[in-house]
Amino acid sequence: MVLGDSFAEGRGGSVNADGSFAGFVTRVEHLLGISGVILNLGSYGATTQDVVDRQLPVALAADAPLIGVIVGGNDLVTDYDPDRFRRNLRHIYAGLARPDRLVFTTNWPNIPDRLPGLPESARTVLRSRFAQANDYLDDLVHEFDLVRLDLVNAPITADPVMWSPDGMHPSPAGHQLIGTAMADLIDEVRTVRVSQL
What we know:
Layout: E1 2-4, H1 6-9, E2 14-15, E3 21-22, H2 24-32, H3 48-62, E4 66-70, H4 73-78, H5 82-96, E5 102-106, H6 120-144, E6 147-149, H7 172-195
Parallel strand pairs: 1-4, 4-5, 5-6
Antiparallel strand pairs: 2-3
């Protein structure tokens, strides 16, 4: 199961015959051999509050062993309240985390520098928000034993081919690369956890 915004939804990826997006989650499913199993609740424009209110209850009721959460970009860019943002992220991950479940996520890559048409003053504000958000996510990763794909420092994210013209969403190639990296990371973590049993 995947919760989140349009990044989770797969926007920017190739479009399926039914109009849905074949984003990075589709790639993860394929590489993990679970195609068609992951329910993707990601939706365009969703904020952390939307996930808390609408998506998290569905995820908790479904009791899935593998859950992804990709959300926060809309909070940071358009609807930012730092206290609410932190509170919602903590609520989401505290609700999902448990020893028999793998919860995966990513940090927020350098979106501010890719957004077209922004004045430099706005980019400076957004850079600060994104940096603070990533610092807070680091704390949650350690506290709740989350599996986080590091998109801040991944060399692939600096390649313009990775991104759609809007600067926010991965391109089809970007979704494929992110999906491959995430599937590899999930496999690696699963192997380590099994070896520790």
